[in-house]
Design the sequence.
């Protein structure tokens, strides 16, 4: 194992790495997207395929990313280049790192817009705006927000500033301090909301919906969606986990640590479902309403329940914390790269990267109102022009390509001895299983996800 330390610093312990990587993984994908995907794809069977995909695709690729990052000890671009050279392969592997950085920038730009909505909603919840609200009322509150570019711009700007503020302070005093506060807070908020849902909602129906397995409700498209989301939710393919791995102390065992992170991410997604569905059912709303589940249906539910304003506020705060720790991870690879290659101070690099994400976010904002257009993609109508295009390009196309590159690089390009050395315990069954998964199962699955995204399947 290498004794180098990254020039950006190092996590102070295994636990802080777990918190940071779980913070990267747990995001809008867990609290917003997962519940509505479960809703749209019929419940239990989808959840089962999702969990299987985490184990068979997500965990192996995550182990590969952390391993590569720690071996290279630099930003993804430089790490991939140097390791490729060391393995006597082609230095063009660094372009997988470039793609990841581009994906991170694009995802942050629209992520920040949605995070802005959560702040706006938290404020409205405190103000009691949703008390007794009707369906039409909830819809007009949402429309009022998304059709007002200036309002969204203000929230978007604030969220980017919050992200830049943390990244500027560096690994130890920025990232690590933020996750040490935000992750425990996130868990407490989530547990409080699940208890609230159990007491006030229709918990039994929520449980049944999430865990009763009905394979008839699941389509082939649903299976591929579950696989794609398992990959997205672990923040893979963008170099984020790789850069976090480059700050990992040499003595931490990688495989066990990754299993812990993937488990936390999955448990948090399931708990988010248990916080949301009982409220949805108790108020006679439908779980299959798509992206509007959190911003349209849930506020109606909170508006008709005891202490709804308080718990509604807590819910949107939870969503904000989840998004914040993820956006930090989305931009960190590019900031690390700028510090290494352009020799600028971290704070300045963070400022520039934040500015780029902000600028791109403005395009997303406009695409909800003035610039909106509709188009057909993979058999679905998308309504929000550029926002949807950016989402598809980054999360459905670039991330799977990045993940495929990581899996092939770890499984086929790096010498087995190097990989064994970094992971420790080459002779064990765990290692052999991982090696098979990263060489065959994960690449095939990612190829399928990619083919679906571009409409071939
Ligand atoms: N996993 C995040 C979520 O669930 C989203 C995400 C995808 C992400 N790729 C990432 C976050 C890379 C940080 C870095 O919402």
Sequence:
């Amino acid at each position: 194992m290498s004794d180098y330390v990254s020039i950006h610093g190092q996590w102070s312990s295994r636990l802080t790495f777990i918190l940071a990587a779980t913070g990267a993984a747990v995001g809008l994908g867990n609290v917003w997207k997962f519940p509505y995907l479960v809703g749209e794809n019929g419940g239990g069977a989808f959840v089962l395929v999702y969990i299987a995909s985490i184990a068979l695709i997500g965990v192996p690729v995550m182990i590969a990313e952390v391993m590569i990052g720690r071996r290279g000890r630099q930003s993804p671009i430089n790490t991939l280049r140097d390791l490729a050279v060391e393995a006597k392969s082609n230095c063009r592997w660094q372009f997988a790192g470039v793609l990841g950085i581009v994906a991170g920038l694009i995802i942050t730009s629209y992520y920040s817009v949605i995070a802005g909505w959560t702040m706006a909603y938290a404020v409205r919840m405190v103000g009691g705006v949703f008390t007794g609200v009707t369906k039409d009322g909830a819809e007009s509150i949402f429309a009022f927000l998304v059709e007002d570019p200036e309002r969204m711009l203000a929230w978007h700007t604030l969220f980017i500033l919050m992200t830049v503020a943390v990244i500027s302070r560096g690994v130890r005093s920025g990232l690590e301090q933020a996750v040490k506060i935000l992750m425990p807070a996130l868990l407490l908020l989530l547990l409080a909301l699940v208890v609230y849902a159990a007491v006030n909602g229709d918990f039994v129906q929520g449980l049944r919906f999430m865990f009763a397995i009905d394979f008839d409700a699941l389509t082939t498209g649903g299976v591929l969606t579950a696989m794609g989301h398992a990959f997205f939710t672990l923040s893979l393919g963008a170099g984020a986990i790789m850069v976090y791995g480059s700050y990992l102390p040499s003595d931490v065992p990688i495989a066990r640590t990754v299993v812990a992170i993937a488990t936390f991410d999955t448990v948090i997604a399931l708990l988010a479902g248990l916080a949301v569905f009982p409220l949805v059912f108790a108020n006679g709303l439908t779980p299959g309403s798509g992206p509007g589940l959190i911003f349209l249906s849930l506020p109606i539910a909170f508006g008709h329940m005891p202490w709804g304003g308080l718990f509604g506020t807590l819910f949107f705060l939870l969503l904000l914390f989840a998004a914040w720790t993820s956006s930090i991870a989305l931009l960190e690879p590019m900031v690390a790269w700028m510090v290494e290659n352009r020799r600028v101070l971290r704070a300045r690099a963070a400022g520039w990267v934040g500015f780029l994400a902000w600028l791109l976010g403005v395009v997303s904002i406009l695409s909800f109102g003035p610039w909106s257009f509709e188009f057909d993609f993979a058999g679905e109508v998308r309504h929000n022009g550029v926002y949807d295009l950016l989402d598809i390009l980054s999360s459905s196309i670039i991330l799977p390509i990045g993940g495929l590159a990581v899996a092939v690089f770890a499984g086929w390009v790096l010498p087995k001895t190097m990989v064994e050395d970094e992971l420790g315990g080459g002779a064990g069954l765990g290692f052999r299983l991982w090696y098979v998964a990263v060489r065959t199962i994960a690449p095939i699955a990612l190829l399928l996800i990619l083919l679906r995204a571009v409409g071939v399947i």
About this structure: The mean pLDDT is 94. Residues 308-342 form the longest helix (35 residues). The longest strand covers residues 375-377. The pocket of tryptophan is lined by residues 24-25, 27-30, 107, 232-233, 235, 238, 240, 326, 329-330 (CB under 6 Å).
